[in-house]
Every structure is written in structure tokens, then in C-alpha cells.
Design brief:
Layout (H helix, E strand, L loop, with lengths): L1 H12 L5 H38 L9 H9 L3
Helix pairs in contact: 1-2, 2-3
Length: 77
């Protein structure tokens, strides 16, 4: 990963149509895509955790929420 960061300035110095640029820019694109995918997964995990936290806190009537009931139904005993 550090090696890719060191290569990026050299990649940008090439002409856009250069074959070398296309070859060297592919790893950087893959790193960028992986980082974006990982960030999306972390956001989904955060949102799921927030929804579960709200659901576990219960409802005003004292009844368990639908999220809590669902969680308890699939939770290993």
C-alpha cells in the first residue's frame, strides 16, 4: 500500500494516453475501489448497530420492539 502511494506522483506525470499510465493506474484504482467498498461496509455496520440499539431499548408501552423480537428469535441460545 505504501509502495502505491509512492508511485502515484510518478503515474500522474505520464501522459493520459500512455500505455504505461494505464498499466500503473490499475492498482491504484483497485485500492480506491476496495477502500470505497470497505467504507460502505463500515457505514452499513454502523447503521445496523444503531437500528439494533434503538430496537433493544424497548418501546414506550414496555413491549419489546419488532427489532428486539427479531433479534431474540434468531439469537443462539
Amino acid at each position: 500500500m505504501e509502495m502505491l502511494r509512492n508511485i502515484v506522483p510518478y503515474i500522474r506525470s505520464f501522459r493520459t494516453g500512455d500505455k504505461t499510465l494505464k498499466i500503473l493506474s490499475n492498482p491504484q484504482q483497485k485500492v480506491d475501489d476496495l477502500a470505497a467498498k470497505s467504507l460502505g461496509n463500515l457505514k452499513n455496520l454502523r447503521d445496523s448497530h444503531a437500528a439494533l440499539s434503538v430496537g433493544i431499548s424497548g418501546t414506550v408501552a414496555g413491549e419489546p420492539s419488532s427489532v428486539t423480537r427479531l433479534y431474540l428469535s434468531v439469537k443462539p441460545h
